[in-house]
Amino acid sequence: MRNVCVVGVRTSWRTVADGEFFCPDCGGDRNYLRRTGRRRLTVLGIPVLARGDAGPILECSACQGHFGLDALDHPTTVRFSAMLRDAVHTLTLALLAAGGTASRAVRDTAVTAVRAAGSADCTEDHLLTLLAALAADTGRMTGTYQAATGGHCGHRGLDPCGTALAIELHEALEPLAPHLAPAGRESLLLQGARIALADGPCTPAEREVLSTAGAALTLRPEDIGRLLAAAARSPRYRG
């Protein structure tokens, strides 16, 4: 004899929005439907009484799994790649501004770092142009850029304690930090250290930039010091 459900609760869903998210079950970028619902008591399958609202939830269009809205806090793969690219780009520019671009080793290391982060078309001229624009537009750097006579800036005078610089680094790195494992956050800081060390020991200005970046990546001060000390001793991080 077949069992018959006499009394139950049925949810009627309504789609209110859609988009793309990182599906926790699929493990990749998927389309989603944002849905709200109404619960109703059913008797013999017939809705008879309202039992309140349901959701809102996100429904994966691929696996049909239901997730809370906090699933949107996790960036999509595309968004994460863009965040990482912007973080490396910002840190690189800050270090070049603090340490100068007179050294060929520094310029080459900076270009390599930015390209590896996803900006495959980055060139030395591109970075130097951005540095000159920062100097002209914000006044955060002092000294003279010789862009018209080779593009090399030997000045090492970015104010490392400047509020504007600290804000830029925090804006680029803080949103990324929760989505990186500790090893990933350390690796990002060490990429910066590699640029700073390409022409010799870190200057105080470069160390200040790296310390600001480490704080934005939620690394403890003692861990920042340990990583920078290890980088200074290791040929791997020196140009």
UniProtKB/TrEMBL annotation:
<dbReference type="Pfam" id="PF05099">
    <property type="entry name" value="TerB"/>
</dbReference>
<dbReference type="InterPro" id="IPR029024">
    <property type="entry name" value="TerB-like"/>
</dbReference>
<feature type="domain" description="Co-chaperone DjlA N-terminal">
    <location>
        <begin position="137"/>
        <end position="227"/>
    </location>
</feature>
<dbReference type="InterPro" id="IPR007791">
    <property type="entry name" value="DjlA_N"/>
</dbReference>
<protein>
    <submittedName>
        <fullName>TerB family tellurite resistance protein</fullName>
    </submittedName>
</protein>
